[in-house]
């Protein structure tokens, strides 16, 4: 236990050299946690960053600094944090350059990517290199869905509004469906040309236009909801809930701090649930404090509040009684095959979520100039725990026996 507490203190205080055994275990957990992986294939300025911004709500600067090189021609972005990602984006940047060979990227991405999203600018028909790369990527895994995303629709109809209501819903069922005759002819011609050029290489077609609020369009995220629905359809069942819960949570939040904090809380909650599902008693007692401490540290950064070891002990004391009791009960029930893992996942996830929301409540109060009492924090924690436990069971019915 002393080694465990040392690991937690290092995590809280930002020590860059955490114990390698804990790091290896957490890295293994990340591979087991359901995280949708989207492979972005498209030329520069084809709308990939706008797509990532729409799905995550992150700012352009955060996205730009979040991507990390992973091959000679591609980069990786784990949102909201590499420690506990909810969504992962693989961006192939060299695809529009002569001589690009996708072999290295296929070897790196093929085992992990769930959906390929090909972004093509509506008015850009020089897509030969993109098509050539997609042919090889498609051949490597024909069962993996490919979405043809036609972007920047407004460039086909300058100074005209987007067609309203959104007229491309039929493409969700049939990507080669006839487009409505009422569409402006230039817009129809551009979409039809891209569908012809990529014939046989995609399963879904989603035209959309993600513009800035000051561009003057009535709907800046034109076709965005269709994109999300198509992704939910294309993703394997185990990964859909992550994207769905992220959307529901962020849509319901108004405060700027909380909108940034929720993806972090959900990411660490998902990892904690994976750790709690491990069928070996007491193993997650080592992992869970490290996961929750890292979450606390990240949330402190969001709110601009230093997370010291002393503050962590104070917060733990305020909500810790119920956590300790549930932890001991969870370990006991793990001796029951199958049922124990399900209960462990539920408790680990719910307690992590509740702790995250209680921390947000605490940090927000501190920003406003007062510190909540332990009784108030405890009440917030238990309310959030109850709600999270019910939601986790609803999202994972097979494990909620």
Automatic annotation (TrEMBL):
Q: Lineage in the entry? A: Bacteria, Pseudomonadati, Planctomycetota, Planctomycetia, Gemmatales
Q: Name one GO cellular component term.
A: membrane
Question: Where does the UniProt annotation locate this protein?
Answer: Membrane
Q: Does the keyword Transferase apply?
A: no
The protein's organism comes out as Frigoriglobus tundricola
Cite the entry's keywords alphabetically.
Membrane, Transmembrane, Transmembrane helix
Q: Which InterPro entries match?
A: DUF697, GTP-bd, P-loop_NTPase
Which Pfam families does the UniProt entry name for this protein?
Answer: DUF697 (PF05128), MMR_HSR1 (PF01926)
Q: What GO molecular function annotations does the UniProt record carry, in alphabetical order?
A: GTP binding
Q: What is this protein called?
A: G domain-containing protein
* Chief location category: membrane
- Keyword hit for Transmembrane: yes
Report domain G positions. 40-150
């Amino acid at each position: 236990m002393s080694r465990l507490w040392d690991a937690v203190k290092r995590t809280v205080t930002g020590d860059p050299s955490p114990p390698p055994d804990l790091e290896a275990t957490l890295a293994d957990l990340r591979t087991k946690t359901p995280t949708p992986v989207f492979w972005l294939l498209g030329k520069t300025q084809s709308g990939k960053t706008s797509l990532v911004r729409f799905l995550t709500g992150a700012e352009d600067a955060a996205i730009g600094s979040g991507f990390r090189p992973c091959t000679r021609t591609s980069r990786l972005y784990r949102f909201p944090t590499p420690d506990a990602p909810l969504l992962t984006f693989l961006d192939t940047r060299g695809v529009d350059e002569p001589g690009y060979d996708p072999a290295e990227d296929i070897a790196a991405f093929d085992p992990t990517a769930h959906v390929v999203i090909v972004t093509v600018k509506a008015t850009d028909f020089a897509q030969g290199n993109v098509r050539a790369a997609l042919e090889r990527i498609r051949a490597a895994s024909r069962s993996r869905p490919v979405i043809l995303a036609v972007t920047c629709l407004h460039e086909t109809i300058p100074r005209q509004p987007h067609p309203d209501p959104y007229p491309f819903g039929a493409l969700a069922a049939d990507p080669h469906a006839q487009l409505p005759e009422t569409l402006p002819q230039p817009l129809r011609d551009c979409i039809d040309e891209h569908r012809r050029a990529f014939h046989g290489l995609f399963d879904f077609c989603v035209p959309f236009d993600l513009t800035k609020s000051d561009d003057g369009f009535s709907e800046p995220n034109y076709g965005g909801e269709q994109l999300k629905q198509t992704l939910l359809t294309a993703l394997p069942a185990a990964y859909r809930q992550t994207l769905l819960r992220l959307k529901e949570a962020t849509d319901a939040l108004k405060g700027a701090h909380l909108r940034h904090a929720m993806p972090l809380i959900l990411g660490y909650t998902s990892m904690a649930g994976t750790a709690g599902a491990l069928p070996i008693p007491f193993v997650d007692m080592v992992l869970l404090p490290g996961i929750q401490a890292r979450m606390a540290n990240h949330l402190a950064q969001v709110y601009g509040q230093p997370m010291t070891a002393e503050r962590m002990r104070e917060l733990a004391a305020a909500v810790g009684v119920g956590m300790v009791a549930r932890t001991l009960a969870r370990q006991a029930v793990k001796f029951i095959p199958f049922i124990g893992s399900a209960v462990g996942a539920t408790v680990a996830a719910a307690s992590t979520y509740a702790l995250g929301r209680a921390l947000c409540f605490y940090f927000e109060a501190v920003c406003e100039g007062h510190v909540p009492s332990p009784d108030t924090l405890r009440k917030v924690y238990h309310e959030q725990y109850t709600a999270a436990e019910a939601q986790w069971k609803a999202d994972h019915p097979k494990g909620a026996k």
